[in-house]
Amino acid sequence: MSKTFGASSTTRSFVVGSERYDYYALPALEEAGLGKISRLPLSIRIMLESLVRNCDGVAVSWDDVKALAQWNPAQPAEREVPFKVARVIMQDFTGVPAIVDLAAMRQALHDAGIDPKLINPIVPVDLIVDHSIQVDYYAVPDALKRNLEKELERNAERYRFLKWAQKSFSKFRLFPPGVGIIHQVNLEYLATVVTSEGVGNGKVAYFDTLVGTDSHTTMINGLGVLGWGVGGIEAEAAMLGQPVTFLTPKVVGVNLKGKLRTGVTATDLVLTLTEILREHGVVGKIVEFYGEGVKYLSIPDRATVSNMCP
């Protein structure tokens, strides 16, 4: 491998319509002798692409890239992975405190005579209000409308703050009550599988990845988008462009064969898998599904498995 080989050496491009996109090609790492990249689990490859793309020598180093490229399934390196996600999602109970923290940071800059607009999310942030809704009216035709009106009245101060935040912060979107639950909105509307952003005079395409402030964020993995739940502090760090760090994970592979018989539901599959996986031990590990059986599962079924498996 050349001593000058680095992240920039992996860039390739493709054209869609009239648009040209650059991307970081993982096969280039294997060609350069960094490891058998094509043999790595897909989840590890998605993380590796993020490391290569975000390699700046500070938050993410080339040593981090090389360590993950040489991932050993039997004994992963005792090394942290500085994983930068493409976006962050939040529900209202855990997300509002994070936005309050950003507002407090802006106030601190203002008090110090510094432009408060310097505080902004670095990656896109979506906050979906779905957890605080209470049922005051039911069994009447306009129950939904009346419950939403009651919610806006009950939490008027919070919604005034969130409306200010949506107008004030860049890359921040607010989904009001009544739109849907966070995981449904994420799966049906927000997820792109592959995303892109302008860099210089061009565009860079990369995997859609995320962390969310809810334990069921893993539901999005059913669409092939890598994501999981984190605490508020980790989510805030990710919002500000900092990596989410964790020890190099082990990966448990689940080979799905055949297809579900008539009358057998995704929930039945999940209950069986949960028993098997808990006995095997998957805490702190990534569970990756593969095999011919995957193609026979619909997106709703895959989302159910991703959401409910331990």
From TrEMBL:
Residues 78-310 form the Aconitase/3-isopropylmalate dehydratase large subunit alpha/beta/alpha domain. Pfam families: Aconitase (PF00330). The keyword Ribosomal protein does not apply. InterPro entries: Acnase/IPM_dHydase_lsu_aba_1/3 (IPR015931), Acoase/IPM_deHydtase_lsu_aba (IPR001030), Aconitase/IRP2 (IPR006249), Aconitase_4Fe-4S_dom (IPR036008). GO terms for molecular function: iron-sulfur cluster binding; metal ion binding. The keyword Transmembrane does not apply. Keywords: Iron, Iron-sulfur, Metal-binding. Transmembrane segments: none annotated. This is Aconitate hydratase. The lineage of its organism: Archaea, Candidatus Marsarchaeota, Candidatus Marsarchaeota group 2.
